[in-house]
Amino acid sequence: MVGTSLADTEPTVLVVEDETLVALDIEIAIEDAGMRVAGHAIRGSEAIALADAHRPDLALVDLQLLDGATGIAVAKHIITHGGMVVFMTANRSALPADLAGACGVIGKPFTGAGLVAALRFLKLVLAHQPIATAPPQCLELGSSCEPLSTSDVASTGEGPQNDLASSKRLIN
Amino acid sequence: MSDDKEDDIAAIVRARAAGSELWAEHAPAGDPFAAAVRATRMAMIITDPHLDDNPIVYVNQAFCSLTGYEESECIGRNCRFLQGVDTDPRHRMQIREYVENNQDLHIEILNYKRDGTPFWNSLFVSPVLDREGEISHFFASQLDVTERKEREQGMERLASELAQAKSMLEGQVDDRTAALMQTLETRTKLLTELDHRVKNNLQLMISLVNLEKRHRASELEHEALEAIRVRLHALGLVHRKLYNEDSIGCFDVSEFVRNIVEDHQLQSGRSDIRLVFNTEPVSVTSAKAGPVALFVNELVGAAMRYAYQGRRGSLKLGLHAMREGGERQFKLSIADDGYSAREKDDTRRSTAGSILALLARQLDARIDWCEGDAHTLVRVTMPCAEPDHSGSLTDLSSDGGHVIGRH
Predict the structure, then answer these.
(1) Which of A17, B4, B30, B111 is deepest in the core (most CB within 10 A)?
(2) Where in this protein does the record say 4-aspartylphosphate is found (chain A) (predicted)?
(3) Which chain B residue lies closest to A107 (C-alpha atoms)?
């Protein structure tokens, strides 16, 4: 269950989920996928504070949080500040067509294995690794997150998160 | 006062004299035109524009019958005495304008009889020219068109009433439609909310089982919890698909089968088993979606676990719709290049008396383990929905393409 020993260079992931048991399940999957949990928020306000404090590489964001339907606002804040967001929701239809700028959606209910596979895929996206395979079926990519082609890695660069990510390219 | 009266009398006298002169000049005894004017049922008058205020100098009998005035009451007066309170001032203006310009005029104007009864007068006015081409008189004829006019007005009233009723009805229809749309929206919201909650609760259950598994040490416990987790996941997958697409009421088995097989492979870590799909769109009703999903899940799980023991191989999954004895059915098969007798036997035995057998009864499914055929592991036949939602199903399967990305 423990990821690689290169703990400092593992991408960090913020979990924004109001169900604490589900959040724990997600955190385990994050570790299984070789990433590090940056924190867990159950409220939108908390999520923004944690995101500002830790600048995670990736945030997994539920739409409905303890302080209401604040997930989209959280996502927009994180994206504006250069973070990457993937929504995790059972209410896919509540998301706008452009996913509010998020990289993708993981539909609930997900399974441990499905989520780990999705996270491994996202890890490659973060690391600007050329990806040969299609995303796992539980991960729906948004229009702002074209899968990286092997030839043109720079074309997806659109914010500071890519600089951050490119410093961690050795991770796989 | 008395001067005015004298003036009036003088004017009448002048008009009478002018009328008599006209009559004497144009209607000596035996003149058929004069006789016709006198005797026609069409009301006619003649006025003299050379006299002050263009007074009437001749009226025929029909005019007296129409208006109720005696001849003596008409001669010497301008014919505006027929007008009254409800006469449209625009009509009066029009007459004056035409007469001043010596033009022919036809107009329908509201006039009043002697007893005050209003009537619609279809009035013709035409200047009469003398030999030198100068205007000598005006000729006017009157026809009572009250009946027609009232009919027209009745029709107009009716039309406006109809238009009013129509717009009222349309308003009611709009209101009703808006109310129905509102209800529909509320219900859709409710359905989405419910669907959302079901999925969240399934997620919670799956996570709970996952967490429980981590606290259990024994292989046996792990296996039991894993079996529950996979089944919950299969149900979760159904709910994720069920209300996401336009095909409410129908459940696309082909997409689900792909997903579940891929999931089982992921879960079991059997990337050495090559997946080959040969599926066509097959749908079952939403009510059957859960049991069908569990059924397929059990079958695929057993195949992954027992049919590829210590070897690589290919799992060829076939799904086809067909008609048998008038009933629409689908056939699901799992095949490989060759199964050993033990693999086939183990797989079959693992499902005996299990959930699979129970669901088969419920779904009216026939399971054929194809004994003697080393290439086919199992073949299942069960009834499915008529493809009346085929349009949305096609959309669904083609839509799923980029999301799933594994074709």
Answers:
(1) A17
(2) 62
(3) B240
